[in-house]
Each structure stands twice: as structure tokens, then as C-alpha cells.
Here is the input.
Amino acid sequence: MADSIVQVSIVPTDTALADLIGALSAVSTRYLPNTTRAIKLSTAILEYTWKAYAMGAPIPGTTIRLKNVRGMYAKSIKKTSAGLQGIVYSDSPYAIALEEGTPAKDLKTIIPFGPKSRVGKRGPYTIVPFRHGVPTALSAPMPNAVYEQIRAKIQAGEIQKSQVRRETVVSPNVRGEPVVRHTYRWGSRLKIPQFPLLEGMVVFNVSAGAQPRSAFVTFRVVSANKPVQSKALRGWENSWVVPARQGLHITKYVVANTQQIIAEAIKAGITQDLLA
Here is the structure.
């Protein structure tokens, strides 16, 4: 396994079968059509199995199951075969992190220095928006009680919606690069102290045509230095520390759960070619 790629190769665990494939490698694949097809089939089986696990399918042999399904991770899994060799691989950083694990990270040493960073009196910082969904949303749903309360206040005119202006401004980031930034017409900022993650939420008007629509967003400052937070958000600055995570070694289960069917397919292909 290299630092920038995760791969699985067609190498039977049966030593005798592996040695036989090695010996047959010196023979032209023109005389081994069934074996070549078996290798291609085996490569496809590995790819399919790995992609299924990447998309959240149960993994036999472990209680591990990928809950935060990432389509880009599955798309990064590809196969290649040539002769009697087959390889399934992924060069996705997410795949590498899943396999090998990740060390603890303090995002305050990373995010404030990104492409959208800013520079203030207290040093580099970045304003990070978090979008919150309605209670039925699959991503970041807010509590139903909070949502109903917000809806009632909007209908009563007690909440003024914010709006993204057409005008933009250009200001440098921490590297001195010019960055085009949105400007806003700010409305109400909601006080929801019982839910710190929602504290300071703004409701944006994102209506299209006559149909009214709203987007619910909170903004948080990630600063290289300790930021000044309100009492409701005290301790928020510590939440940017991501703990270390152990590797899940997904490919180990890909191999373990396919090795028997792959060995049988390759044996059948070799047998057919040798008897031909």
C-alpha cells in the first residue's frame, strides 16, 4: 500500500494456485483465454464488493458499516487488468484515511489559512457557514420544535430574513491573494441558547419566483488565535479539534469476503485452458 493509493491485487491465498499463475505468466494469454476471463471477472468482483461497502452495505465479518456514505469515495474505486494481473485501486484521500486512520488534527491550524481566509486584528481567521435542514432533511436536520417556532415567528413578522446582495467585494486572504466575497443585507439573528449549535442562526430568503423559500444558516469564526465567543457559545473554539481515528481496513474485508469465489473462478479457468 503506497502513501497516495489504496489497492487490492488478484493474488490467491492458496500458495499452489498462486505459484501456478506465476508459472503461467510466461505463457501467451492467447493460449489462456479462460484464465484471462477469470482474472477479469475476479477483478470486477473485487471492484463491486469494495464499492458496495463504500456505499454503506453491510460488511460480513465485522460490525463496521460506513454510515456517512460518500459517493465520491465509491466513484474513486477503479479496476485495471492486463494478462494474468488484476488490480482494484483508489487514490482518494478519503480511502487512504479509512484504511490507515488519521492522527488528531486541530483545525484551527488549517482552516484559518485556507483560500477564503481573512486577516484581522487578532490574526488569520475564516468564517465558516453551516446550513441546517428542516426536521425531515437528511442532512443536519434541526429539532421540530425549533423549526415550528421559527416558522411561526416568520409568519408573524417577528423575524426579518437576511439576503445575499448582488454586490461583491474583493479583499486579500492570508496569502495576499484577492478573494471575491459576498455582501449581505442582514436580518434577525436568532437566540436559541438551549441549542448552542443553532445559536445566532439567520434565515436567508432564497425564494425563486412566487414560491417563498428559506435557508437556515449559522456562521462560526475559526481563528488561529482563541476567538471571543458569547456565553452561549463558550467552549465552541475547542470543538475544532478532531480526535485521532483508527484505520478501518475496509480492503481487508473486501479480500476476505471474495477470496473463495475468486479462487474457484480462477481454478475453473485454468482447468479449462489446460484441458483444451
About this structure: The chain has a mean pLDDT of 86. Residues 33-54 form the longest helix (22 residues). Residues 105-242 form one domain.
